[in-house]
């Protein structure tokens, strides 16, 4: 599965994209795995886990909830809130 990070999520992850083996069965379990491996912060000092708590997640273009199955998902977009117009 490919994960794409945007904005503060990219800063905290230290990368714009990564590929992971799909071992997690739900978004919640994937985030638990990711938060244990990513220990970076944003320039303002916000941790990866803190950023994940405010993000919206899209799986192959559709919004994901924490209990959504990831069985057939190939791409996840991690999108923090954006400001501006």
Biggest beta sheet attributes: 5 strands, mixed
Distance between the termini: 31 Å
Q: Could you list the spans in which at least 5 consecutive residues all have pLDDT below 50?
A: none
Helix content: 25-40%
Structural class: alpha+beta
Strand order of the largest sheet: 2-1-5-3-4
Topology, number of strands: 5
In one word, what is the shape? Answer: globular
Q: What portion of residues belong to β-strands?
A: 15-25%
The average pLDDT value, as a whole number, equals 91
Q: Count up the helices.
A: 3
Summarize the structure.
The protein is of the alpha+beta class and about 80 residues long.
Structure description:
There is one protein chain. The termini are far apart. The mean pLDDT is 91. By secondary structure, the chain is an alpha+beta fold.
């Amino acid at each position: 599965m490919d994960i794409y990070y945007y904005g503060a999520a990219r800063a905290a992850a230290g990368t714009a994209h990564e590929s992971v083996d799909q071992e997690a069965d739900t978004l919640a379990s994937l985030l638990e795995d990711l938060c244990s491996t990513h220990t970076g912060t944003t320039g303002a000092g916000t941790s990866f886990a803190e950023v994940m708590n405010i993000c919206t997640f899209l799986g192959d273009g559709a919004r994901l909830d924490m209990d959504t199955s990831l069985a057939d998902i190939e791409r996840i977009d991690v999108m923090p809130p954006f400001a501006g117009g």
